[in-house]
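Researcher: For the annotation table, I need structure tokens for tRNA N(3)-methylcytidine methyltransferase. Please keep the output clean. Sequence:
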Amino acid sequence: MHAAGAPPITASTSTWPVYSAPRVDRRYLSIRAWTSLYSDSENHHYSRRSQQYWDKFYKLHKNKFFKDRHYLEKDWRSYFDDEIESSHGKVVLEVGCGAGNTIFPLIATFPNLYVHACDFSPNAITLVKSHANFSAEKMNAFVCDATKDDLCVNVMPSTVDVVTLIFTLSAVSPGKMASILENCKKVLKPNAHILLRDYAVGDSAQVKLHDRDQMISENFYFRGDGTCSFYFSEAFMATLFQSAGFVIVDINTYCKEITNHSRNITMQRRWIRAIFGRS
């Protein structure tokens, strides 16, 4: 929030430097090889204790840290407008739901949806269930570490139309990402989709973390509160999903220059938006 009387925060497009994709050609790596490539990241203190630090994060910040995220209707509504709005009984699963900042705006926009929501933080799920708009008739919220816990324990196999991954993959080490995608495949219907938004290489937050020497492995960092964040190139993201057997429907990197006039700070924000299909 800007100071009283100060100019507001503004956003504009900008010219961006080119950031290289990971140097290893991973187009033809199996999921097992992909996982072993980043095995060293698993042994880092903050990587091993990611669940603990995220649970502490939600205990401390409750639902006050993130604003409600209307990403589905803003990013993908034109693509799914007819498919979702015109039919009842569609099922969505959000993996890494946090305090519910995406799922509650989603239900408000598409009231006919049934939503499964999971997170590996028990405190996050407690916040979801205590939300004023939580309804057990329309939502199934449960604790699950999707890197190792079988989603099919709480979600019937092949019953989900759309999985959303909103800044979820970036919160875990690169070696665990493929496990999440394999887990999601179990509950997705044939020809269903994954909708994704996540951090992109070159984001201003990555630059700060790199300058502070907080890198765990290539493009993977730990923050001051102990949580972690990975920054994706399109090539890395595409290879990750293709290696897991998904088809690329759409993938783009979006860039925005945000200026906080009261603090005289300009931030170059970058994120990836993508749609992947289950083959």
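Researcher: And a one-line annotation?
Model: The radius of gyration is 19 Å.
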